[in-house]
Every structure is written in structure tokens, then in C-alpha cells.
Design goal:
Elements (H helix, E strand, L loop, with lengths): L1 E7 L3 E12 L4 E10 L6 H9 L6 E12 L1 H17 L2 E5 L3 H9 L7 E2 L1
Parallel strand pairs: 3-4, 4-5, 5-6
Antiparallel strand pairs: 1-2, 2-3
Helix pairs in contact: 1-2
């Protein structure tokens, strides 16, 4: 598991709380997130965006099965990742949306902006 550390500005450092693993080969990668995706976890965007730069990778699935929480900043992170996928001409899907995460997705109608499988 990789642990993310977020840095905002030169004086503010926020510890990210999401850990993730990247699995798979060939055209598809699955990223399994664990913990909570919230303020301070912005480095996950460039990490995932780097995968979109690999010519062999056409699809990324972000598995949220073990994600325990997400705040508005975390929702923005997911939207940014989706935008990066579109720019790169790649597929980005989210799986394992359940419990409080599902409630949050429903409240904000994220299934209209993101592909949830």
C-alpha cells in the first residue's frame, strides 16, 4: 500500500488518509483504495494520471470497496481523475461503491458524471 501525503502551498502540509495498491497488467489496471479520500489526498490525481500516459493502459478501475469515507475534496479528486481520463482518451470506472460512499454518490448524483459499475 502506498500512503499519500498532500502539500498545499509552502506552509501547509496535510497528511492524506487514503492508501492504495495498483494491480493488473495489459490494457487494464485496478486501483484499490483503502481509508478515507479527503483533503490532503490530491497526489492520487497525478499518480493515476501517470497511468493514463501509458500507451498500453486503456482502462482504469478505481475500487472503493474498502474506502470508509470521502469528503467534498475527495469527490473533486474523482472528478479530476475522470477529466484526466477523458483528456487521455482512456476509460475510468469506479467500482465497489457502497454504504456511506453510495449515499454520498446518490446525494451528489455522481453517477451522472462518473461511470460507476
Amino acid at each position: 500500500m502506498k500512503r499519500l501525503w498532500g502539500i498545499f502551498g509552502s506552509n501547509l502540509r496535510c497528511e492524506g488518509t487514503v492508501e492504495y495498491t495498483i494491480e493488473g497488467d495489459g490494457e487494464s489496471r485496478t486501483i484499490r483504495a483503502k481509508g478515507a479520500l479527503k483533503f490532503g489526498d490530491h497526489p492520487i490525481v497525478p499518480s493515476i494520471s501517470e497511468l493514463f500516459q501509458l500507451k498500453a493502459v486503456n482502462e482504469i478501475v478505481l475500487d472503493l470497496t474498502d474506502l470508509e469515507g470521502i469528503d467534498s475534496f475527495g469527490l473533486g479528486v474523482l472528478i479530476k481523475i475522470n477529466q484526466a481520463a477523458g483528456t487521455a482518451g482512456k476509460s475510468f470506472k469506479i467500482s465497489g461503491v457502497r454504504g456511506r460512499i453510495r449515499e454520498t454518490f446518490d446525494i451528489f448524483k455522481l453517477d451522472r458524471q462518473l461511470t460507476v459499475i
